[in-house]
Amino acid sequence: MLLPVYFRQGADQESRFLRRAIESVQRQTYPGPHEILIIDDGSPTPIETLRMQIGPAELFENVRFIRTSRNNGLVNALNFGLNESRYPFIARMDHDDRWSPGKIAKQFALFSADPDLSISATGMTLVDSSSKVLETHVRPGDWSGILNFFIDVGCPFPHGSVLARRDVWRLLGGYSHDPSTAHCEDYALWGIWLRFFKPAMVEEALYDYTVSDHSVSSAHRSQQASASGQVNARFRALDPVQRVPASLMALAEAFGISVLEAGKLAYSLWAFRMSVRAPVAAVSPLRQLMPDRIVMGHPDRDRSVVEVERLIGRPAPIEERDAVRVQVL
């Protein structure tokens, strides 16, 4: 679990919040080993030195501290944590937020039931700094419902509720440093993620989000709204509800691979504009997934193409008589 933190001077309240956050994570039930990775984003006083102020020694079981040399901002802290992470699934939250009992177990149950699933989230409860409930938000849990929510409402995943596959997170390169998506880094990342990978939602409010004057949504509201509008417009133009689920399943069938592997393949071709040897039946779904790219199918005479095995981690048998060279431009 990634927990980016920056403590200003006089961090008594922040320490109390951090203790509450860690306790809520420690009380979860996990299917295997785990750790809480606290990323100290260059706080004036190193947070690790404040352990005794934050809580008792047993609170820090499975907790690891890493620290940046200076305050670089949330995106840099999160990407630093992604690079340092050790386990195949990654969750995240802020230091003043809290998970409800059973949150992680319910999300891992979704992954156990569906090996094609790449990311899950939960509903959230908005609270003030004294834990008074302000609002509760529960969002659609199915694939098309999540895509529609992205288009019609906004960010589909409350950031502190997310649990996702580390291999996908790293394949996408983590959070964007593009200034045009400043202060909506989650929404921008999900705008790429949901083009190529299957999501799900636990339709329960299992995460408390603390509303404060220091939150990004409060401090940078106008800039966040402008950047989010641009992300939404790009996503809406793709017609993802009609294109994505059916096209990923058709691509998986064409190659004889899983939907998750089809997403990795399609994203790699889209992001890096590669050529790959593929079945003829793969051309149409790739075109559906990439209306912002030119996808061309050529006779398979050029052997200087990327092998599918390199992109998905295992061979994908392709009949010689049915093979073409797919080029993405």
A few lines on this structure:
The chain has 329 residues and is of the alpha/beta class. The protein is built from 13 helices and twelve strands. The chain has helices at 12-26, 51-54, 74-84, 103-113, 143-152, 166-171, 185-196, 216-219, 221-237, 240-255, 259-272, 283-289, 308-312; strands at 2-5, 36-40, 63-67, 89-91, 98-99, 117-127, 133-137, 163-165, 198-210, 275-279, 295-299, 323-328.
Describe the structure.
This protein is α/β, with parallel strands linked by helices. The longest helix is centred in the last third of the chain and has 17 residues, at 221-237. It is elongated, with a radius of gyration of 21 Å. The protein has 13 helices and twelve strands. The chain folds into two domains: 2-237, Spore Coat Polysaccharide Biosynthesis Protein SpsA, Chain A (Alpha-Beta Complex); 242-328, no CATH class. Helix 10 (240-255) packs across helix 11 (259-272). The strands form three sheets. Strands 4, 5, 6, 7, 8 and 9 form a six-stranded mixed beta sheet that branches.
Set out the fold topology.
Elements: E1 2-5, H1 12-26, E2 36-40, H2 51-54, E3 63-67, H3 74-84, E4 89-91, E5 98-99, H4 103-113, E6 117-127, E7 133-137, H5 143-152, E8 163-165, H6 166-171, H7 185-196, E9 198-210, H8 216-219, H9 221-237, H10 240-255, H11 259-272, E10 275-279, H12 283-289, E11 295-299, H13 308-312, E12 323-328
Parallel strand pairs: 1-2, 2-3, 6-9
Antiparallel strand pairs: 4-8, 5-9, 6-7, 6-8, 10-12, 11-12
